[in-house]
TrEMBL record:
It holds the Pfam family PseudoU_synth_2. Its EC number is 5.4.99.-. The keyword Translocase does not apply. Residues 27-83 form the RNA-binding S4 domain. GO terms for biological process: enzyme-directed rRNA pseudouridine synthesis. This is Pseudouridine synthase. Belongs to the pseudouridine synthase RluA family. It catalyses: a uridine in RNA = a pseudouridine in RNA. It comes from Candidatus Schekmanbacteria bacterium RBG_13_48_7.
Length: 327
């Protein structure tokens, strides 16, 4: 395949032809384009562009599962960002860093990062629209500025891009695994190895579509590095570094090795009843969030060319559990 220009605000119309020796020959178009433009567009964004008619093959509309063939001419027309229909939300953002290119904020548990078809509640994106005049449009209308996400019940640091260039560069760093992402979590019990790597592919659960699984027949590589920081009688405090960024990765991985994240009502809803200390059990039952916090993020500033690192403290409900078991 001939090298094509990267999509940007000044060059949003381009095309390329599939050759016989291309790695993409015979493969799905959504997979191929997501790989070709890794760090620029997600696979879901590629799918949106195909379904909206902004990506054509031989001047004909195709489906995301279309398999590319030799001599296929792929034309891509990236539309300009459209104004968001979402109403601004005057919500106090806990901002750790901000300049004209990006911002780093500390997301509380209990608020979704962006709207989804399953809910119409106010989200972090609504608050960002209220705070910022401009946000990157790469994520589409529903996810302006969002470089990566955290689950609704997960707290911690989040990167937000204000320009498309910064968004692409930060996404590229994520793809290259050069961004430092450390989480703190509390898990049930303690693994036999006090430090290690969980290397189990993750994909959509074969029966429950809202869940992810290490037993999916369509999975992607997922690598989680961990270290036990404090071991208690029934729970452990763990430092986790993500080497990949799959949906629910930390929760799925620790559940798969039978040490689920405390408070995870999706993957281990009854694990709390394994806790014999009744006071600790009551503390855990009272959680409305996961004991999972995105504590540290570090990255190369795409414009200023300096490495920035930020760390946020654990939420009170997280500390309350640790303070109790430390007594």
């Amino acid at each position: 395949m001939e090298k094509s220009p990267s999509p940007n605000t000044s060059d949003s119309h381009f095309s390329f032809t599939i050759n016989s020796d291309d790695d993409f020959n015979g493969h799905r178009i959504d997979f191929c384009l997501a790989k070709k433009f890794s760090g620029q567009f997600s696979r879901s964004r590629i799918k949106q562009l195909i379904q909206s008619g902004n990506i054509l093959v031989n001047d004909v509309l195709v489906k995301p599962n279309y398999h590319l063939k030799q001599s296929d001419l792929v034309k891509i027309d990236v539309p300009d960002a459209t104004p968001s229909h979402m109403k601004p939300w005057d919500f106090p953002l806990d901002i750790y860093y901000e300049d004209e290119y990006l911002l780093i904020l500390n997301k509380p548990a209990g608020i979704s990062v962006h709207p989804a078809s399953s809910h119409s509640e106010l989200t972090l994106v609504h608050a960002l629209i209220n705070h910022c005049k401009n946000l990157s449009g790469i994520g589409g209308v529903e996810r302006p500025g969002i470089v990566h996400r955290l689950d609704k019940k997960t707290s911690g640091l989040l990167m937000v891009a204000k320009t498309d260039i910064v968004h692409r560069e930060l996404s590229k760093q994520l793809q290259e695994r050069s961004i430092l992402r450390e989480y703190y979590t509390v898990i049930l019990g303690c693994p036999a190895e006090l430090s290690g790597i969980i290397d189990l592919p993750i994909g959509r659960h074969p029966a429950q579509r809202k869940k992810m699984s290490v037993h999916s027949y369509k999975s992607r590589q997922a690598i989680t590095k961990y270290k036990i920081l404090e071991k208690f009688k029934e729970i452990s405090l763990v430092s986790v570094h993500l080497l990949t960024g799959r949906t629910h990765q930390i929760r799925v991985h620790f559940s798969s090795i039978h040490h689920p994240v405390i408070g995870d009502d999706m993957y281990s809803p009854r694990s709390v009843y394994q806790i014999k200390d009744l006071k600790l059990q009551k503390l855990i039952k009272g959680l409305s969030a996961y004991a999972l916090h995105a504590r540290t993020v570090g990255f190369q500033h795409p414009i200023k060319n300096i490495f920035l690192t930020f760390t946020s403290p654990l939420p009170d409900y997280f500390e309350n559990i640790l303070n109790y078991v430390r007594e």
